[in-house]
Design goal:
- Helices cover 34% and strands 16% of the residues.
Length: 478
Amino acid sequence: MKRMIMLMAAIVPLSAALLPAAADAADSRPRCAPLTVAAPPGAEVEAVTAVAHAGGTVTVPAPPPLPQPPPITGVPARCEITVTLTHPGAHDHVQVRIALPQDRRDWTGRFQATGGSAYLAGDFGAPLVTAVKAGYVAAATDAGIGQSPLDVSGWAPTDDGALLANFADRSVHDMAIVGKDVARSFYGSPVRYSYWNGCSTGGRQGFAEAQRHPKDFQGILAGAPATSWDRFAVATLWPQVVFNEEKTYPTVCELEAFTTAAVKACDRLDGVADGIIDDPRDCHWDARRLIGTKVVCDGREITISPAVADVVNKIWAGPKLWYGPNKGASLSALANAGTPFFVADTWVRYFVERDPAFDTTTLTYREFARLFQQSQDRFHDVIGTDDPNLFAFRAAGGKLLSWHGQADELIPTRGSVDYRQRVERLMGGAHRVDDFYRLFLLPGVTHCGGGSGPQPVDPLGALVRWVEKGHAPTTITG
């Protein structure tokens, strides 16, 4: 579980290019104090606080149970302003935290809003500090639901839809408005370029912005996006359904043996032996090829059975309603018998069924289909985040850079491909869409980074060059 949570954390890379300093040294340090903030439409400001932080090396805590990130060195002095919002009738209290370089000469004129992971709308720790180090005014929001990526028990059971709407997209839009307003008031000059940076849930939030609030950001970086949430968050329970219906429960050792065998079988399809499946769509290896193979697990020898091979084939195929994991992606994160993927398990128990005691390990094929449809019917318009209509975003001059690991073990990569293809069909084909939206598939890379493939190096910098210099990325550096 800890490993999965670590993988869900978004990567906040640096962008080295800086804009001219905003002022000379004489008036370079605005006072770190509460200031007047204009409320976004439909919201009210409840409170504004400010805390000054010295520069140097910063050690930040992580939202439990995420591990503590390493210390961040060379951070300039910063002012953190927290704005608390409420939406009349919603009875919510949403915190938006904005971190600003204390010396305006350390500010590049850029604004970076940062995303969350799992059920965390935004991290108030490392992403903000890292962005400030790179010269940004940085912002994050808790959407009024707290700082836990796992635990929704404190808000979901009593939510009438307002907090889910905050998590889906409303709080990100509010954050964009408030963050840029705070930057203007603090420095006395407006933001020149505004960016979104997120992965997983943060990736989904970025797509929500492009679809629903196309003028908020000039550049959106959306990694491993959890789009089609209403479908993805049920579909990733598919392995548990297969286990239950087929009465077959492979060990983790057996599951990993199938992944290893698939990689070995399809590694050379691209002409290079590097332990990576370049394009899993080309890999047609059948799990039944492993029947009779012996696997040693915890000192016990297990022979791969036909039943286990059939189960693995069903998991790879995915439900007819959505996609399964790519061959080459670890199966243990989603297909650990008796341990459902926590995002999917939480979604079904607290939102679809509204019964925290509901057992997602006992689902039948028929019950799964019912839950899938129920999730779509109730939540697609709220958090589906897969509207292919990006005409307004394109008209606003926005640039959307997305990437997804081909070995993503949590969010099926083919969901991102499906969305891109639907945008192309609606908006005039690949060439026209490439003008403002590009998707890169990274071989061997797991969820939001990791795995045996080349890791993405500063995709935010590539986005900045696209937005500010017109240099569209043809590759992502790894």
